[in-house]
Amino acid sequence: MGTPLRSFGGTGPLLLLPLLAAGCAVPPAVTVASFAADGVSYVTTGKSVTDHGISAATGHDCALLRPVLDDKPVCDTTETAAAKLVPVEYGAPAPPPAPAAIPRDQYVVVGSFLDPANAARAVARYAPMQANIVDVDVQGRHFHRVVVGPLSNDEAAGLKLRLASD
């Protein structure tokens, strides 16, 4: 009588090779149980447990070893009753994403006036840019500041250039 490996002939090491190649994080008992389930499934149906999962997901008859053993495609795509139950969505492509909103968080002081009438005229001049009067006291004096905004960075920079050239 020989060693247990010799009882399998020369194929003993080949049969144990999948056990060595299995994932390191999976306990050996789980690996052995998985191979046993695949073996039983393959003997009874000609397909592994994985093949059955792929077949269920696609609705077609799929077997991963079919290209190797029978020189056929992995999935037989002829229409089956199960294939009719697999949801498939057809439709128009998704619309392009909307452009990102430009932040409008800049405010520019366009004038500071002692006379409220002058501040009101400045507000009227810059009304399209959302001008407002903000009352402030500076060193005991009451001013009426005209503040424009909120503006984007580009709008604020353009307004500052306009004010510098006036």
Terminal residue distance: 108 Å
Please, what is the average pLDDT?
81
Oligomeric state, counting identical vs distinct chains: single chain
Largest sheet: 3 strands, antiparallel
Residue stretches low in confidence (pLDDT < 50, at least 5 long) are: 1-8
**SS summary, helix count:** 8
What is the 3D shape?
rod-shaped
Beta-strand content bin: 15-25%
Number of strands: 5
Could you explain how this protein is built, in words?
This protein is an alpha+beta fold and 166 residues long. It folds into two domains: 24-92, no CATH class; 106-165, Alpha-Beta Plaits (2-Layer Sandwich), CATH 3.30.70. It has helices at residues 4-7, 12-21, 28-45, 49-58, 66-69, 81-85, 116-125, 153-165; strands at 61-62, 75-76, 106-113, 131-138, 141-151. The strands form two sheets. A three-stranded antiparallel beta sheet has the order 3-5-4. It has a two-stranded antiparallel ribbon with strand order 1-2. Strand 4 and strand 5 form a beta hairpin. The protein is rod-shaped and about 100 Å long. The relative contact order is 0.08.
